Structures are given as structure tokens and as C-alpha cells.
Amino acid sequence: MLLNSFFKICNYYRENDQVIFNIELIGDHPLYAGHFPDRAIVPGVCSIGIIKECASFYLQKSLRFSTLDHCKFLKPIEPLINKSLSVTIKIQVIESSTFSISGSIFSMNSCFVTIKSKTIIL
Amino acid sequence: MILLPPPIISYPDIMQYLPQRPPMVMVDFYYGEIDEEAYTSFFIKEDNVFVEDGIFTEMGILDFLAQSGIVQMGHKIQIPEELKASSMGVITQFKSFHVHATASVGDTIYGKVKKIFSNAYSASLYVTAFFEDSILIEGTLTAMLIDNNRDVIK
Predict the structure, then answer these.
(1) Could you tell me which residue, B80 or B95, shows the higher pLDDT?
(2) CA–CA separation, A97 vs B140, rounded Å?
(3) In chain A, what residues touch B59 (CB-CB under 8 Å)?
(4) Which option is the CATH number for A7-121: 1.10.238.10, 3.10.129.10, 3.30.70.330, 3.40.50.620?
């Protein structure tokens, strides 16, 4: 839903047990008209959606969160300022259709969001 | 799901309690509190930004719950005068959320907000989204007023 309309993946690579994506936000997405009119900020739910969709892209499977054990929004993401971001995810298989996904969104100087979750295959 | 009274705040008046504007407003009605639990509702339209293939995704339901919490906070908490001009309510944390199901276009979903803790600047809320008698999503969120001129959430 968000991939290629709200953000795009520039490249990705594995590093130890993590996958790191370099992404770019698409700053003219229509939702910014309402979030917020005076200051565009990535909605918190979209930032965790970005992490889920990066995992989905890597696994080549449609995923849905089953639990969000912990999700912390540390700093607002402003698409006009923070256009280029990195997403790191760590995926563990719990059962054949359930994955544990930990992840974060960060730039060179800042960590914006961290999550610890479980997802199921749709 | 209990029988709710008529709403006390409806769209578009509900926007006085939310920083979001269309297409990101995800609450239609606020029904006030019954036994210390506040209730909201939202009708899912086909053109909602969180609808994909007719399904209102868990992202949309989470945003509905977050906005339900902000409306409840805004209605209950007296924001200090010195903060009104420069602050906005934001969600800083989701904790122990369980996603049981999603909703569909044409559904009206309901939100229930139960305060765990609050002061003038923040609140911890247990929130539940329902469709008919089924729980869709439930968990605890933390909302906070932040200074709009600073970007770090403490």
C-alpha cells in the first residue's frame, strides 16, 4: 500500500542477521495535506507500515501485524527534511506463517522509530 | 458492544480536538464517557488512504485508535494556556497491541478508550477497536503534548 506511492526502496543489503534498506520518501503524497497542513510529518502508523512493507518486500509475502509488542516514536519524520532514510529489520521465523520482526527507521544522526512485532502471512 | 447515546461531538467539529485534517481525519463521532470509558466511531469509505483492496488495514485501525485517544485527551484534559498555541498531541508509544482482525469498506468501527494515567501533558490509554461484537485491535498507547517548535519527543 505504501511502497512506491509513499516511499520507494533505493537498495537493500544483508548485514549479519539484519537487512538494511535505503529508502526515499515521496514527499507529495496526498495524505500530507492532512498530516499536517502547516508541517508535513510522516504519520506514526505509516512509519511502522514502512517497516512492515520492507519485511514484506524482502520475504516476497503479504504480511499483517498480529502483535505490536513495543513501538516507540522517538522523533517526528519530516519528508521534506528527512527524505532519505534507512530501515533496518531483523526477521525470525516463529512458525511457517508467523514471523517476528524487529526494526527501526533512522538517518545518519537520528533514530526515529523502533518496533518489535509479530506478523502473519495474509 | 454497549448501546451508545447520541454523539456529543461530530465531524467536522471533532477537528477542534485533532491536528489532523482530511484526508487524515479518522474519527467521525465522539460519544463521551460511559463508566469511565470513552467511545468513538468511524465509517470506512472506499477512498480512505488506509484502504487496500477493500480492506481497512491495521494501520488505519491503529490511526483511528490513536486519534480516538487524542480526542478523548483533548476533551478531558485542560491544556495549559501557555501550551495551546505551540503544542500538538502526538502518539509516542504503542505497547502490547494485538491485531485480531481488520475491517472493510462500508463498516462502521467503534473505539473504546480507557484512561490508565493522565496529567496535563501526557496520557496512557488502553484502547480497543470493535466491529459489531468482535474486537479488531486492542492495546496501550501513550499520547503526549509536544512543543511544535522542537522536534525531539522526550
Answers:
(1) B95
(2) 26
(3) 1, 45-46, 48-49
(4) 3.10.129.10
